[in-house]
What does this fold into?
Amino acid sequence: MDRALRILDVLADSGTAKSLTVISTRAGLHVSTTHRLLTALRDRGFVAQDSEGGPYRIGPEAFRIGSSFLEEIDLGPRLRSVLLDLAARTGETANLVVRHGMEAVYVDHVISPQVATLFTRIGQRVPLHCTAVGKVLLAFAAPHEADRLWRKLLLQRSTPYTLTSRQALVQELRAVRSDGYAVDREEQELGVACVAAPVCDASGRTVAAMGISGPAGRVLVKLQALAGHVRSCASRASRLLGCRPPAPALAATSGARRSRRKGGDSPPDLRTGTPVRLRSGVTRASRTS
It folds into this structure.
């Protein structure tokens, strides 16, 4: 079972058809084992192959199961109008994302006509610590969830701008809570910047992140204006889900983001406000603005 799931995971990555050799290498399996599992998955509809000996891709049965996950969440259809409005306001690709385990999953998006390269796709999974949507889901997680996420969080580097120290991430998440929005400055993918804000339900729990993504040179130069649109649309999405004002995105102030680089080496913990004791040798990651 585990080996078959590894093959499906390889096929889902980037969404393009792949050869037997590529799948075998990326899944870490012998070619004969990979071929046997692919044949079984193809016979059940989880994998598709247009011609004998040709490349493999995700099949309709895998899509059906994945779609049932999105239908269960049911946020996409309910918030589609807000997502369309966000894309129209900003001219950038608008995204709706939920947390699944230790990753953020894109459940809907509206693609900008200005985008030549697709930055996100529905079903794509991304890390929490180096994406705007992920930072929102971390920063606004319920206390018991935040403690569990924090213990399991792995700060793996994706680009030179990824935050890889817990000290720096704590400061960043405090700024996200204060400002009501998060920014990804090429931290997950070089050349791509994102802005996101929280969406809450009737209980006040943050259930999703809504944001935009686009070329860093275009997004960062108009960051404040884009952040305003993102916060406004995320707040409207929250009201559609029954959240009563003030929604997190509009109840925030902007002081922490301006000052998050100041202070000593023991910033207060995001959830408790008490100092965080860091291991010696941990340094603050460099960032661009």
